[in-house]
Write a structure and sequence with these properties.
Blueprint lengths: L1 H16 L9 H4 L13 H45 L3 H19 L6 H22 L2 E3 L12 E8 L8 E6 L2 E3 L2 E4 L1 E8 L17
Parallel strand pairs: 2-6
Antiparallel strand pairs: 1-4, 3-6, 4-5
Helix pairs in contact: 4-5
């Protein structure tokens, strides 16, 4: 009889420690928080509370939108102002350097009334021209080489050809107007005369139109 009692005691202990639960109950997934309850299952108080929460969230989002929009407007205005300032004073360094050229011209004019004024004026103009070229060279301006060079349609504009026994065909023999490049970009081609050599060929000279267009 003591054996039966001990077996019954074991059964009771098992029943207490592991109570039966429905097979389809999962405490981790089946317990819903108030925020997860569907709207149709909410009470009136819960619905009003939910509306208040959404209204507050909407107000916060709208405030964030207004602040972001105002910040974007400020950035655009600041960038526009900085760009205008940059354009307005972009040539400030060049202008400062050219002031010395103005000073030299004024000095040449002031000294032109003295004795030997003609020679002094020429010397002053030459000095001023050299200063001007040096100043523009600092900003990237370069003269295009012409005399004795091979004709290059990308930098030279041939206005005439002439017979020349001493210069081979295609070489530049005269310069009508100087050409310039600014930081390796052509801003004005040089107007030149090129040699036809010592052979008078009346056929139309080869044209180079659009050769250097990209």
């Amino acid at each position: 009889m003591s054996e039966n009692f001990s077996e019954n005691s074991k059964k009771v202990e098992i029943n207490i420690d592991a109570p039966e639960t429905p097979d389809n109950l999962n405490p981790e997934t089946d317990i819903k928080t108030p925020a997860e309850i569907p709207l149709e299952e909410m009470s009136a108080d819960d619905l009003f509370k939910k509306i208040d929460e959404l209204r507050e969230e909407s107000r916060e989002n709208y405030d964030k939108y207004l602040r972001s929009q105002a910040e974007m407007d400020n950035i655009i205005k600041r960038n526009r102002k900085e760009k205008e300032e940059w354009i307005k004073y972009s040539n400030e360094t060049l202008i400062k350097d050219l002031l010395q050229v103005i000073d030299n011209l004024e000095n040449a004019i002031n000294h032109s009334g003295n004795e030997n004024s003609f020679n002094a004026l020429i010397a002053g103009v030459e000095l001023t021209l050299k200063g001007l070229k040096d100043t523009l060279a600092k900003s990237g301006l370069e003269e295009i080489k012409t005399l004795g060079e091979d004709f290059d349609p990308c930098f030279h504009h041939a206005v005439q050809e002439e017979l020349n026994d001493s210069v081979e065909k295609g070489k530049i023999v005269k310069e009508f107007q100087k050409g310039y490049v600014l930081n390796q970009r052509l801003i004005r081609p040089a107007m030149v005369v090129i040699s036809r050599g010592n052979f008078d060929d009346s056929r139309q000279t080869e044209t180079f139109q659009n050769v250097c267009e990209e």
